[in-house]
Write a structure and sequence with these properties.
The chain is an all-alpha fold and 174 residues long. The chain has 8 helices and no strands.
């Protein structure tokens, strides 16, 4: 017997088709128009997305990530943020796949129940890949001036990083 979730998409498609036929909407032509707009959006997103992914790759390969993390680690120790989670905090706003790789490394090297592992897990679950998201969504609709969006989103990410360390410190013993 099929579950409701297995039937949901076919039922929704049939309802849409029935409504379109009832209103005399040319279903196939409308579908082609939507697919054409979707393809234009995809092409518009590809260029900034390739640029962002290339920049992330160059950033990691150049050693700049390690240099930044090494320079910030004394400050993070004073603030109670685990220096092992610093590469994740640097990469999380930029790239989801790079930050997942860093999270995996943290969990493999320090353990899921370590302070660094817990902070990294909270960061991964509670922050956004800000630059990637802005690139995709703003690129899709053609927004060139992000105004205060980038500053506000990065401030929210920074707050998430700090609160992750505080919350893990409060709820779990080191």
């Amino acid at each position: 017997m099929k579950t409701i979730s297995a039937m949901a998409i076919p039922v929704i498609l049939l309802v849409i088709l029935a409504a379109a036929l009832f209103k005399n909407i040319p279903v196939y032509d409308t579908f082609l128009g939507g697919a054409k707009k979707g393809l234009k959006t995809t092409v518009g997103i590809i260029v900034p997305l390739v640029g962002l992914l290339s920049a992330v790759s160059m950033f990691r390969a150049s050693g700049a990530l390690e240099l930044i993390c090494h320079g910030l680690s004394p400050l993070t120790k004073i603030l109670g943020f685990p220096p092992e989670a610093l590469p994740l905090a640097v990469l999380r706003p930029v790239s989801g796949s790079a930050s997942l790789a860093v999270l995996r490394d943290i969990l493999n090297n320090h353990g899921a129940d370590s302070f660094a592992g817990r902070v990294a897990s909270v960061i991964s679950g509670s922050t956004e890949t800000t630059l990637y998201t802005l690139t995709v969504y703003y690129g899709a609709v053609g927004i060139k001036n992000a105004r205060h969006t980038l500053k506000s989103a990065l401030l929210a990410d920074f707050t998430g990083f700090a609160i992750a360390a505080v919350a893990v410190g409060l709820f779990f013993s080191r």
